[in-house]
Amino acid sequence: MIAKYAKRTKQMNIFKLGFLPKFFAGMASLWIEESRRIPVGGQAVIEGVLMKGPEHWGLVVREPDGGLWSKAWLGSAWLKRGAWTWPVIRGFASMADMMKIGMKALSISAERALGEEESFSVTEMAVSIIAAILMVAGFFIALPVWLSDSIASASGASFVAKNLIEGLVRCAVFVAYIAAIGMWKDIRRVFAYHGAEHKTINAYESGLPLTPQSVASCSRIHRRCGTSFLLVVVAVSILVFSFFGGGPLWRRAAARVLLLPLVIGLSYEIIRGASKSDTWGKYLIMPALSLQYLTTRAPDTSMLEVAIKSLGLALDPEAAATAITLRGD
User: Fold this and answer.
1) pLDDT at 145 over 60
2) Of the chain's two ends, which shows fewer C-beta atoms within 10 Å, N or C?
3) Is it the case that residue 24 has pLDDT exceeding 70?
4) Which structural domain, as residue segments, surrounds residue 75?
5) Cβ of 324: how many Cβ atoms within 10 Å?
6) What is the C-alpha to C-alpha distance for residues 187 and 261, in angstroms, rounded to an integer?
7) Which of 24-28, 68-72, 124-128 has the least mean pLDDT?
8) Is 272 exposed, middle or buried (0-12, 13-18, 19+ CB in 10 A)?
9) pLDDT for the residue numbered 252
10) Is 214 helix (H, G, I), strand (E, B) or coil?
């Protein structure tokens, strides 16, 4: 599938190596960004924006002829029941659901933006997800463990210092990777839609008119962005992984993969609490906000129009009443 889509388009290859980490950041962004007025969140897709309202989703994509294509579907009811609402568990459960929805939205946006009617099969989607997970595990788990081992061995660092080095290396790898993929034209355009999504949500939360002119004046930095969440994950992982040291490289790398649900769940609770605080929460995530200057770009008017319509669709009661149930088939 990756080769097929790479061959099919030169202008917008969504499966370049750089897109997959951005996809995960987008999922976190969609999952974390909750408004204090009505819960909303957003994620940039191919030539479009996906927004989440209180009951349903809204996707708007700019088609090759310049028109806007839209679709609404219902959210997952199971996330509001039983153990899936418990602290820590709800974080990882929501992330898993966002990955499923995000991949489907990504598939739809590619079809509409590229003028193609061919969609992902279940097998193709599975291959994409597995490839993304393996790449993330390799770059952001195994590589930092190996590098921290090498640095600690050469410097004679203690166990505590070794874990700190691992976290710093993981953070450095993540920042360098985001900076590198941001140099690609295709990814910069996705980042611009990310900026449009942030500006629109900021305008909505501030009570400003949702017009391109008004939204354009808002910041493209949002304190509940998933990019900030990923840096919180790095910080939390330093603490959690410090309790599981020793053994060969493969065992420690595997332990970190297995502990990811716990790290994600704890990080979600931290961001959730910080997003509701104008005191400690505001200053806690402030250092992470600067990273958004790498993952967002200034959008043009056409991108703002897409984001505004997507948010309107996600908040439209009539769209909620007529939304379909989006399935993986």
Assistant:
1) yes
2) C
3) no
4) 2-322
5) 10
6) 28
7) 24-28
8) middle
9) 81
10) helix
- Domain membership flag for residue 151: yes
- Helix or strand holding residue 104 (H, E): helix 89-114
E strand or H helix at 22: helix 19-32
Residue 327 is assigned to a structural domain of this protein: no
Cβ neighbours of 74 (radius 10 Å): 14
CA separation for the pair 233, 245 (Å, rounded): 18
Kindly state whether residue 309 falls inside one of the protein's structural domains: yes
Q: How many residues does the chain have?
A: 329
186 — pLDDT class (breaks 50, 70, 90): confident
In this prediction, residue 3 carries a pLDDT of: 38
For residues 242-251, average pLDDT: 75
Which residues have a Cβ under 8 Å from the Cβ of 50 and sit 6 or more positions away?
Answer: 30, 42, 43, 44, 57, 58, 59, 101, 102, 105, 109, 310
- Domain-embedded: residue 328: no
For the chain, the straight-line distance linking the first and the last C-alpha, in angstroms and rounded, comes to 16
- Classify 304 as helix, strand or coil: helix
Q: How many domains does the chain contain in total?
A: 1
pLDDT of residue 324: 67
Measured CA to CA, the distance from residue 95 to residue 43 in angstroms comes to 13
Could you identify the residue written with the tokens 């994950």?
233
Burial class (CB in 10 A: 0-12, 13-18, 19+), 81: exposed
Task: Please check whether residue 120 is in contact with residue 108, taking contact to mean a CB–CB distance below 8 angstroms.
Answer: no
